[in-house]
């Protein structure tokens, strides 16, 4: 019998939210290890795409550096 914890995906959290200084406008292109959907370009001037980007990065981040690079603390608080 397998322990359920074996199937849980590990999650990444920032050490300090003030380090979240990612872009707040323009086009963001995520690397394929974060978004392999074929739609990895996010226009941060379109509110729905901001939500999509944040959801993707939070779910797929491999390290805190991913969070720091693509998320912004003020934007995250607004969402």
Protein architecture, described:
With 79 residues, the protein is mostly helical. It has a domain at 25-78. The chain is 34% helix and 8% strand. The protein contains 3 helices and 2 strands; from the N terminus they run ββααα. It has a two-stranded antiparallel sheet. The longest helix has 14 residues, at 47-60. The radius of gyration is 14 Å and the shape is globular. The protein starts with 26 loop residues before the first strand and ends with a helix.
Short synopsis of the structure:
With 79 residues, the chain is mainly alpha-helical. The protein has a domain of 54 residues.
Strand content: 5-15%
- Cα separation of the termini: 40 Å
Mean of pLDDT: 92
Please outline the major beta sheet: 2 strands, antiparallel
Low-confidence stretches: none
The geometry reads as globular
Radius of gyration of CA atoms, rounded to a whole number: 14 Å
Strand order of the largest sheet: 1-2
| Helical residues, percent | 25-40%
| Discrete helix count | 3
The total count of strands amounts to: 2
Quickly give the structural class.
mainly alpha
Series of H and E elements: EEHHH
């Amino acid at each position: 019998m397998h322990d359920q914890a074996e199937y849980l995906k590990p999650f990444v959290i920032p050490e300090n939210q003030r380090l979240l200084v990612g872009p707040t406008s323009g086009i963001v292109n995520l690397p394929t290890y974060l978004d392999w959907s074929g739609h990895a370009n996010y226009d941060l001037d379109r509110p729905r795409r901001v939500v999509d980007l944040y959801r993707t990065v939070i779910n797929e981040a491999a390290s805190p550096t991913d969070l720091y690079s693509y998320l912004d603390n003020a934007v995250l608080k607004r969402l």
